[in-house]
Write a structure and sequence with these properties.
Layout: H1 24-31, H2 36-41, E1 58-62, H3 72-86, E2 93-97, H4 102-105, H5 113-131, E3 136-140, E4 151-152, E5 165-169, E6 171-174, E7 188-192, E8 195-197, E9 204-205, E10 212-216, E11 224-225, E12 233-238, H6 257-260, H7 274-277, E13 282-287, H8 293-297
Helix pairs in contact: 3-5
Amino acid sequence: MPPSAGKRGAPPAAGGDGIDVLPDEVLQHILGFLEAHESVRTCVLARRWRNLWKSAMVLRILAGEGKFLGSVQKLCNFVDNLLRLRGGSPLDKCELGFTNFARDMSGCSDEDEDGNRLMRLVNTWFWHSVSCQVKVLILSAYPGCQYEPSLVLDNRHVNSQHLTRLQLEGVVMGSRFLNFSNCPALDYLEFGGCYFDADDSRPHICAPSVVSLHLLEIWGMIPMLESMPSLLNAFVIAGQESWDTCDLENCNCEFCEHSYGIGDCNGSNDSVLLKCLSEAKHLALLSGLEMFIFKRDLRWCPIFKA
C-alpha cells in the first residue's frame, strides 16, 4: 500500500487546513445560510461547534413548502427552546415563515390550543427578533392571498435604530404598528396580503425614511401614505380584496358616495396614495377596473418627479 493511502480519510490536524481553521465569525456566517433546525444539528460535529449556532447572525425558521416537517406542537417547542438558548445574541437577519400551518392559524377557535398557541408565539418571536437588533426582518404567515389574514401582531410601535428592511405577508396590524417614525434606518418596507385594522377608518402609514415601498394585494382599505421624502421606488398592487372598489357603470368616482367619504376619522379626504408616491423616481401601479382609488387621487393633480 502506498504510504499516503492510509491517510486519505484522516481529519485535518489542529492548525492544518480545512474548515476548522476558519475563525468563529466566518463559521457563524456560514451557519446563517442554513435553516435553524439544520444549524442546531452542527453542535454534534465537534466540541468547537457545540455553541457556534447560538451566535449565528442569521436565523431562518421556515415551515412552508415542505420544510420543517412536523406538528404545530413540535414547531412551537423547538423555536421556544432555540430562542431561550440564543438569548439576546444580535441578528443581522431573521426570517420567519409558517405557510405550512396557515390553516392552523386561520380561523382557529378558542378550543384550538395548537393554533392559538402558534399565533401567540409567532408574535413573541417577532418582537424578540426586534429586541435582538435585527436589521432584516421577514415574517410570512400565509402564501399570497389564499387566506384572509388572522395573525395579529401586537399594536405597538416598532422602536429600532437597527432595522433596515421589513417584509410582512398575511398578517394583521393596527394603526400604532404602522408608525415607523422610530425606525430611522428603515429603507425597505413591504406588505403583501396584509390587513390594516384602524377601527373602520382609513389606516395611515408613517415611514419617513423609506426608500423602497411595496404594497401588494392589501385586504380592506388601502392605507393613506404620509410624507416619504426619501422615497425612490414604489410598487402598488390594488387587488380584489381591497374595499376601495365601485361596481357602478360609467361612474365618476370623484363624486360617487363610495369615494367621497373614504377619508380618515378626522374627515380628511386628502390624497390616499399618489400625493406621496409622486416623489418616487420609479413607480408601478396595478389595479382592476373596479378600483377607484387611483382615479380619485388624480383629482389632486399630483406632479410626478420620475
